[in-house]
Write a structure and sequence with these properties.
The chain is built from 1 helix and 24 strands. It is mostly beta strands. The strands form 4 sheets. Strands 2, 14, 15, 16, 17, 18, 19, 20, 21 and 22 form a 10-stranded antiparallel sheet that branches. Strands 3-4-5-12-7-10-13 form a 7-stranded antiparallel sheet, with no helix packed on it.
Length: about 325
């Protein structure tokens, strides 16, 4: 999904570092997305004081609604898009020739590398809800050729009171087949009490989709993102809920996020914008089936985009 804000915020993302085990709430903000069929999403990442969780740098929750979604071709650089539907169907088409219908329980993973474009259109007359996440690529992967993976079957981690579909990385003995470029995990949890294993070198966050639980000595309900920090070897739940677990090694790079681009300098972002506006076929290609229709890039702000230095750990 594109960030369709007409005036996207400049998001200088400093690496969060490691601060040990915490339990901090971050309120998701409602963001109206424009385009042909505008929708509203709840954006949990990035936050000013929590730009990333591991390499996870963007988390939107959309729906449920039956207004349909039509996101015309738009570009990405420097990231992986992770599309995780909870209800409904989404048709993905991209500039490297993929045309896939995505359903709940399945994963679409697109790696932009140096540049890719894609569109997403929901099936008509159906209720749609889901998550759109981005993973920042490490510097050595930002120049790679774009790639796309569709995974219709994913592994499940099970322990007493817990069943978790692992869509990225590893949880316990379950490892997703999806390609990762930094150590991380993404999983949808169904919990009725129970405990999950964690890696103490990872930082983690939880987003509740339904229900309520006691976890890390706090009460968690749908809405805010609960940041758990590092240093935990396990996490125990009391209550019944559906939740999304995100985690990974604290990301070492300072980033600039603007519109649909993740970069490390103003010049990198400005060059990507110019290439998209110039319809550079070598960088962003063409998404079949839309003719000349595409999402134009917004204007750059009247300042140089700068990453912040890494926050001391």
């Amino acid at each position: 999904m594109s960030n369709l804000e007409a005036s996207p915020q400049v998001t200088p993302c400093e690496s969060a570092g490691s601060h040990g085990a915490v339990a901090e709430f971050f309120v998701a903000r409602e963001v109206p997305l424009g385009g042909v069929r505008g929708i509203k999403v709840n954006r949990a990442l990035p936050q000013r004081s929590l730009p990333t969780v591991g390499a996870w740098c963007f988390l939107d929750k959309f729906g449920p609604h039956n207004d349909g979604m039509l996101v015309l071709p738009h570009p990405h650089i420097g990231l992986q898009t992770v599309t995780w539907p909870l209800a409904g169907e989404v048709r993905h088409r991209d500039s490297i020739g993929n045309d896939v219908v995505l359903r709940p329980g399945q994963l679409n993973l697109m790696t932009s590398g140096r540049g890719v474009s894609h569109s997403e259109v929901s099936a008509p007359g159906t209720v749609l809800s889901g998550l759109q996440l981005w993973v920042a690529l490490p510097a050595e992967a930002t120049g790679m050729a774009p790639d796309f993976e569709h995974h219709p079957k994913l592994p499940v981690f099970r322990s007493p009171g817990v069943e978790a579909t692992v869509f990225m990385g590893t949880l316990g003995d379950a490892t997703s087949p999806a390609t990762t470029h930094t150590p991380l995990v993404g999983a949808q949890l169904s919990v009725a009490g129970g405990t999950i294993p964690l890696r103490p070198d990872f930082e983690y966050a939880l987003l509740l989709l339904d229900g309520s639980v006691q976890v890390a000595d706090v009460e968690l309900t749908p809405g805010p993102l609960l940041y758990l920090g590092t240093g935990r070897e396990s996490l125990t739940f009391a209550g019944t809920a559906e939740a999304i677990l995100l985690g990974g090694e604290p990301f070492a790079d300072d980033l600039v996020m603007w519109w649909n681009f993740v970069g490390r300098s103003h010049d990198e972002i400005a060059a990507a914008r110019a290439d998209w506006e110039g319809a550079d076929p070598q960088r962003f290609g063409v998404v079949a089936g839309h003719g000349p229709d595409r999402i134009p890039a917004p204007g750059l702000p009247n300042l140089r985009l700068k990453p912040r230095p890494r926050r001391p750990s």
